[in-house]
Write a structure and sequence with these properties.
The protein is mostly helical. Helices cover about 40% and strands about 0% of the residues. It has three helices and no strands. Helix 1 packs antiparallel against helix 2.
């Protein structure tokens, strides 16, 4: 976020410098580089915000429009009156039989294996 804000601030400064020094050297003008017409929202804030949002989406692997767990019939109830727990096999401590026994010992209504 810091690097995105720094690049946005530097880009805004360079754009204003270029316009003031080369394109319109005799005019006094003000260039808006932010979303809102306010002195409090600047280009470095705007690019820092976008860097944070898109960085978070990329690091979380989002958007993920499809996952094999959506094929489990009872998954439709997960957002209504139940919750859904997914344990990936990529976990180094994963053991299929021990994990199933552990979940059933907690009183799980259903334990399903999901094929990719």
């Amino acid at each position: 976020m810091f690097i995105g804000g720094l690049l946005g601030g530097l880009g805004g400064f360079m754009m204003q410098y270029y316009l003031s020094a080369y394109e319109y050297p005799t005019r006094q003008h003000r260039l808006e580089l932010a979303v809102f017409h306010s002195d409090h929202v600047r280009a470095d804030h705007l690019t820092g915000f976008f860097t944070a949002v898109f960085g978070m989406l990329a690091l979380n692997g989002l958007p993920q429009p499809y996952h094999p767990v959506f094929n489990v019939p009872s998954f439709a109830l997960a957002s209504r009156d139940r919750f859904f727990l997914l344990i990936e096999t990529a976990d180094p401590k994963y053991d299929a039989q021990a994990t199933r026994q552990f979940l059933e010992s907690l009183g799980a209504r259903e334990v399903s294996d999901v094929q990719p």
